[in-house]
């Protein structure tokens, strides 16, 4: 039987920012292409690496088999994945990452680093396993489904689990958690990227883009700025061929984000006129620290959302017990002295909306399976025998240092620098709503290039698009916080348009 393969899935781990590096590899795994489902599985050697010692170390930790699932659904004639496990040991911090190579070979010279949610939420748990990857975790973590709309049809994807404490990322130095802020995350991500490109020099000249959602609205521009600045000092730093970034439902500026959140809740009938008026009078979102009156008023707003899914206000909530789709606030006192960025983030997790709101629960079920963790050598990495994996880590929420009020100055800088910048927004998201994003863009005062108009997909209005000099804004109709999950075909069309410059259709 003739076999075809979809490209390579690379799973990597990177520790810290300084010190010596030790890389190990694990054999690739390939699923054969079969007409009637998975019929065989073979091992394949990883890409050639100059250091033979690293290759020998990999063989000792080879993934011999993939843990069984009830079924792999979605196609009877499919290309699946082959994967590598990489570990880069630097100091005592270790970040997990996954690289999924472009599957069609049409756009193999385009790389995209993706960062999802946070602070504390998993790029692999949401981005790779729920939204963008070629395999999605199905019900109860027992089913893998092929994603016909995976973004690796358009580019090589690199998912980075950052900061420490996210997913299987960890640190042996507890004091590290007191240092975590946006700058810390950008520095770790930059150093990981540098070392990834060092191990894969064939990708150094490729166009490189960064994407992300939610709090990655902070991560992505700040990482882009770091790369942009260091590209000017090639005597000290390696060149990274950064072309631009794209962010979805991004936290951008605290004042506009929370102003938009409040107005969206009122305009979409989540809160009463009285709730809205009370919050407007009590809150000055321009302040870094909210008053007790503002905390009390906003507590009421967030509690109104407990009955529904704040991340997709028209979608059903997950009925499973203890699911991360439940939006809860344990007590008013918990937020009495918090900064606005931290308000409402301590207890809530970024929850997929759409027709099945329980995906985060399924992902946790899968990655907490002992056979899965054994196959990934998790408990051989110096951790405990069993590692509790969560889609979002509440302790990172609580310990994160929210030091950046606005990233709009970075937008101005990088727009002048010529980077390609897009922002997209699912218009059913109540957490980082489209209203706040529009306020942020308006504040940039960019010259209008192409006026607000509808764009179409499958002969239906998919959303709206407006182009400014240096920035494009796209809405996705009916999508929530997780646009690729809620509207996968529209999201794939959007990322294709962004990466390759083919305009979104503006006529049926």
Automatic annotation (TrEMBL):
<dbReference type="GO" id="GO:0005576">
    <property type="term" value="C:extracellular region"/>
</dbReference>
<dbReference type="InterPro" id="IPR018202">
    <property type="entry name" value="Ser_caboxypep_ser_AS"/>
</dbReference>
<protein>
    <recommendedName>
        <fullName>Carboxypeptidase</fullName>
        <ecNumber>3.4.16.-</ecNumber>
    </recommendedName>
</protein>
<comment type="similarity">
    <text>Belongs to the peptidase S10 family.</text>
</comment>
<dbReference type="InterPro" id="IPR033124">
    <property type="entry name" value="Ser_caboxypep_his_AS"/>
</dbReference>
<dbReference type="GO" id="GO:0004185">
    <property type="term" value="F:serine-type carboxypeptidase activity"/>
</dbReference>
<dbReference type="Pfam" id="PF00450">
    <property type="entry name" value="Peptidase_S10"/>
</dbReference>
<keyword id="KW-0645">Protease</keyword>
<keyword id="KW-0732">Signal</keyword>
<keyword id="KW-0378">Hydrolase</keyword>
<keyword id="KW-0121">Carboxypeptidase</keyword>
<dbReference type="GO" id="GO:0006508">
    <property type="term" value="P:proteolysis"/>
</dbReference>
<dbReference type="InterPro" id="IPR001563">
    <property type="entry name" value="Peptidase_S10"/>
</dbReference>
<dbReference type="GO" id="GO:0005773">
    <property type="term" value="C:vacuole"/>
</dbReference>
<keyword id="KW-0325">Glycoprotein</keyword>
<dbReference type="InterPro" id="IPR029058">
    <property type="entry name" value="AB_hydrolase_fold"/>
</dbReference>
<keyword id="KW-0964">Secreted</keyword>
<keyword id="KW-1015">Disulfide bond</keyword>
């Amino acid at each position: 039987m003739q076999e075809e393969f979809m490209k390579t899935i690379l799973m990597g781990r990177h520790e810290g920012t300084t010190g010596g590096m030790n890389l190990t590899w694990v054999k690739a795994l390939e699923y054969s292409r079969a007409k009637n489902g998975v019929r065989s599985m073979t091992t394949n050697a990883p890409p050639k690496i100059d250091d033979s010692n690293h290759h020998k170390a990999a063989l000792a930790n080879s993934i011999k088999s993939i843990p069984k699932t009830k079924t792999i659904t979605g196609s009877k004639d499919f290309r699946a994945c082959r994967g590598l496990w990489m570990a880069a040991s630097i100091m005592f911090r270790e970040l997990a990452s996954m690289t999924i190579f472009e599957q069609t070979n049409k756009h193999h010279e385009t790389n995209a680093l993706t960062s999802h949610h946070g602070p504390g939420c998993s790029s692999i748990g949401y981005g790779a396993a729920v939204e963008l990857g070629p395999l999605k975790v199905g019900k109860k973590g027992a089913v893998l489904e092929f994603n016909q709309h995976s973004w690796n049809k358009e580019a090589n994807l690199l998912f980075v689990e950052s900061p420490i404490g996210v997913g299987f990322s960890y640190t042996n130095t507890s004091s590290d958690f007191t240092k975590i802020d946006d700058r810390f995350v950008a520095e770790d991500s930059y150093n990981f990227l540098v070392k990834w490109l060092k191990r894969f020099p064939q990708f150094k000249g490729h166009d490189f883009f960064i994407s992300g959602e939610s709090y990655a609205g902070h991560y992505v521009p700040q990482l882009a700025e770091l790369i942009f600045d260091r590209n000017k000092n090639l005597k000290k730093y390696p060149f990274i061929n950064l072309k631009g970034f794209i962010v979805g439902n991004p936290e951008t500026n605290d004042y506009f984000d929370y102003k938009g959140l409040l107005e969206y809740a009122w305009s979409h009938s989540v809160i009463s006129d009285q709730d809205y008026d009370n919050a407007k009078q009590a809150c000055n979102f321009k302040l870094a620290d909210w008053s007790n009156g503002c905390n009390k008023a906003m507590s009421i707003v967030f509690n109104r959302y407990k009955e529904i899914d704040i991340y997709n206000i028209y979608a059903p909530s997950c009925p499973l017990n203890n699911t991360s789709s439940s939006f809860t606030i344990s007590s008013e006192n918990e937020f009495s002295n918090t900064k606005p960025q931290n308000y409402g983030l301590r207890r809530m997790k970024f929850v997929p909306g759409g027709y099945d709101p329980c995906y985060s629960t399924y992902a946790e079920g899968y990655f907490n399976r002992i056979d899965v963790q054994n196959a990934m050598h998790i408990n051989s990495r110096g951790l405990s025998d069993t590692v509790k994996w969560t889609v979002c880590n509440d302790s990172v929420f609580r310990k994160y240092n929210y030091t950046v009020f606005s990233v709009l100055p970075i937008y101005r800088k990088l727009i002048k620098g010529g980077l390609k910048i897009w922002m997209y927004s699912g218009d059913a998201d109540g957490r980082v709503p489209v209203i706040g994003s529009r306020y942020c863009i308006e504040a940039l005062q960019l010259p209008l290039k192409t006026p607000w108009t509808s764009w179409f997909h499958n002969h239906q209005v998919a959303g709206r698009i407006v182009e400014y000099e240096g920035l494009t804004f796209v809405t996705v109709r009916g999508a929530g916080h997780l646009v690729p999950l809620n509207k996968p075909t529209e999201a794939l069309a959007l990322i294709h348009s962004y990466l390759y410059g083919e305009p979104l259709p503006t006529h049926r």
